[in-house]
Amino acid sequence: MAITSNLGVGSGIDINGLVDQLVKADGQPAFASIQRRESAVNERISALGRLKGALSDFQTATGKLNELGTFDKHTASSSDEGIVKATAGLNAAAGNYQIEVQQLAQAHKLISNGYTDGAAVVGSGTLAITAGGSSFNVTIDSSNHTLAGIRDAINQATDNTGVNASIINVDDGTGGTVSKLVLTASKTGIANAISVAVTENAADPGLSALAYGAGAGATALTQVNAAQDAKIAVDGQTATRSTNNFSDVIQGVTLDLKKAQPGTLVDVNVVLDEGSIKDVTDGFVKAYNGLMGIVKDLGKFDSNSKAAGALQGDYLLREVKQQIRGSVTEVVSSAAGAYNSLAMIGISVDKDGVMAKDSAAFSKALKQNVHAVSDVFSSSNGVAARLSGRLDQYLQSGGMLDTQTTSLNKQLRRLSDEKDNVQLRLDNYRKTLMKQFIAMDVAVGQFQSKGAYLAQQLAKL
């Protein structure tokens, strides 16, 4: 070879280039083998990741079928939401009701006489305030005996159980302005009416101007709003509550009163929420087909191109396909109603493994017996219950997929170590070759130098 380099001055050989080629030729088969095995392992890890993702999506969709109330959801509608709004919750039952809102609940509100402003002195003593059956005392002295001070003392009392104090500034009727203390119960209803008993300090009188109610002495505060319960008639039957929210009159239905309209009947209809059930079951069908589509793709084999899926022929893939399909097609032994399989409620799996839902047949089954449909999915041996256990076997920590992925990652680490060992061997091989070629280069250089010397001497003869 006639290629020169700094290291090949003696021999004229490109020693670096030659050594690189020899080392590469020696290591290439080993590195190629490791790379092929790494690619195969990474491809399998990726395939297991796709399978796990599809199984997880299917597990989520299946879990919704097992959630409390999935097949017991109802919707409630009101013919006049300006009077009463209806909301259905768990345990609601289909039905129609006529509601008459006779009166709304309101909070008790009291107001004092007018004072010049918030800094006006009212008087000292003790206020014993009662609301909703609970009482608290407020001490009024020279530090807080003004209208504003009394307001703040009431609001800041740690045992205040339900009275809000405020000040309003209004006309006095003669062209001026006065300030008045307002006490408002924080809760509606007769049971939450306010009373104020006053023990006045004789040295600083005037606090009795805030007294109100039985046992409070002279009633000085003026009632703005009477404490009042809400009253409705449901199909002619009276119901009274302390708030405008009735949640225990119609089973599973909350009535939110908006306006009293005696004599006006509002229709409240409670019906099965088929749309919600349809969304959950449609999600189940979609997730099942998504899973089986990935199973098919990972296990396929193209006879023309000879291309195979990453898990073609794998026992785990076959088991997933067989177990999941069997779980959705087997008869449900725990179903107590007229239906005992998905096929009977309009959900079928064809010969190609594709699941489809006949919406008309499914809707008919819901109308005929929604609890029987629920049993097909969520009874003890129901489709969702069976799938839950089998999906856990694959997805739980330490399960089949987790175990395989852990093993494959260990293989990758071993292959990385193997690659490092090959590289170490090649580095040592390079050092050996360099020593040999440098020694050869030096020897050739010396030989050439002696030859040149002899040639010079012969030329002189």
Radius of gyration: 44 Å
Main sheet: strands, sense, barrel: 5 strands, antiparallel
Structural class: alpha+beta
Topology order in helix (H) and strand (E) letters:
HEEEEEEHEEEEEEEEEHHEEHHH
Instruction: Look at the structure and give the mean pLDDT.
Output: 91
Low-confidence stretches: 1-6
What percentage of residues falls in helices of 4 or more residues? 40-55%
Strand element count: 17
Strand content: 15-25%
Number of helices: 7
How many domains?
3
Summarize the structure in words.
The protein has a five-stranded antiparallel sheet with strand order 1-15-3-11-12, with no helix packed on it. A four-stranded antiparallel sheet has the order 7-8-4-10, with helices on one face. A three-stranded antiparallel sheet has the order 2-14-13, with no helix packed on it. It is elongated, with a radius of gyration of 44 Å. The longest helix is centred in the last third of the chain and has 61 residues, at 400-460. It has seven helices and 17 strands. It is 43% helix and 21% strand. A hairpin with a 2-residue loop joins strand 5 and strand 6. It starts with 14 loop residues before the first helix and ends with a helix. With 461 residues, the protein is α+β, with helices and mostly antiparallel strands. It folds into three domains: 35-69 and 275-402, no CATH class; 74-105 and 229-272, no CATH class; 109-225, no CATH class.
